[in-house]
Write a structure and sequence with these properties.
The chain is an alpha/beta fold. Helix content is 58%, strand content 9%. This is DNA-directed DNA polymerase.
């Protein structure tokens, strides 16, 4: 009975401190930046620094590592200087902190230094430092938490990119946003950089043509062009798009992945008559993704969709080493999808 009794307060403590968005961070004596998404964490920490520096340009910034920590460092860098400048202390690697750091950080929570802001970065990769996190979340040290959960789903990446443009008060066409997210589907850091480049470089609204001009050469963009034309039944265009993508250096694996992703979405939506908003919410998608999948399903039936999925699964195995001729595997997959008939029929 003792163990559950100890765990229960920790669970309740998670709501004892303010939870802030990484897009709108604010300083506090203790700022816990938690979660694995490094792009969001970097933005949050930079936002805290900018906030403090705007209040006082004499801000002193110190960086320490919790895993390579010398005793007394935390108290030393947070103590007031001769002229009383505000201090910002950024602590990295809390998820692998040393015993010395853990002991001193817990003691610091009981008596934070006036004028000091301590930012603790914990990726969540381990449970190391959990005692410190629980104490912060219980309200010790007058802390706030900025959660940076992993951005994995397509809808999450879409939200992230849309948020970049909204924060900059920049308009981007929905189809242009989709193309941009597709172009950087595997790397949030690159997606963030691409958004910022467009925001900085393009004076007006961002259109499909702008995204194509900047990032049309990305493999994933070519992959979705191939997928879109094949699923629409435009056989000749799909083969031309495939050959163009391969000639441009596209890797067959993400080409197949792009097709598979669209077919999976179609399969999840097929036969469901729920309103788009309700279905999107239940499936963890966006309204526009449901609407697009329903448009893509025009002309398809259960048999042809199943055949296309099987052909894509076969192509996936073959381009990953199951066949010596990846190009033939791709062409056969495109043929089955675009013609909606068995290969050679």
């Amino acid at each position: 009975m003792a163990s559950p009794a100890r765990r229960a307060p920790a669970k309740a403590a998670r709501s004892a401190i303010p939870q802030l968005s990484w897009r709108a961070p604010q300083p506090a004596p203790i700022v816990l930046v938690s979660g694995p998404e490094e792009v969001c964490a970097e933005r949050a920490i930079a936002g805290v620094r900018d906030y403090l520096r705007a209040e006082d340009p004499t801000l002193e910034v110190s960086d320490i590592r919790a895993d390579d920590y010398a005793a007394g460092t935390l108290l030393g860098v947070t103590s007031p200087s001769l002229f009383g400048e505000p201090r910002l202390v950024r602590v990295s690697g809390v998820e692998k902190c040393s015993d010395t750091f853990l002991t001193e950080a817990l003691a610091y929570l009981a008596a934070p230094q006036d004028g000091a802001t301590v930012v603790l970065r914990h990726t969540g990769a381990t449970v190391r430092g959990k005692k410190l996190l629980d104490a912060i979340r219980a309200g010790e040290g007058s802390g706030v938490e900025i959660a940076c959960p992993a951005v994995k789903r397509d809808s999450d990446r879409f939200d992230f990119a849309a948020g970049e443009f909204q924060a900059a008060r920049k308009r981007i066409a929905p189809t242009a946003l989709r193309a941009l997210v597709s172009a950087f589907a595997d790397d949030l850091t690159e997606l963030a950089a691409a958004c910022q480049q467009l925001i900085a470089d393009v004076p007006g609204d961002i259109t499909d043509q702008v995204v194509e001009r900047y990032y049309g050469g990305r493999v994933e963009t070519s992959a979705f062009t191939v997928a879109d034309t094949a699923i629409a039944g435009r056989y000749g265009e799909a083969l031309i798009a495939l050959r163009h993508a391969l000639a441009s250096g596209a890797d067959p694996v993400p080409l197949v992945a792009a097709v598979a992703m669209k077919l999976r979405t179609m399969a999840r939506v097929a036969g469901n008559r729920e309103p788009a908003a309700a279905l999107a919410s239940r499936l963890g998608m966006k309204d526009w993704q449901v609407d697009r999948a329903r448009r893509d399903l025009v002309g398809w039936n259960e048999e042809s969709l199943g055949r296309a999925i099987q052909a894509t699964a076969r192509a996936d195995a073959e381009v990953k080493g199951g066949s010596r001729d990846a190009v033939f595997a791709l062409e056969r997959m495109i043929t089955v999808i675009a013609t909606r008939a068995p290969y050679g029929a």
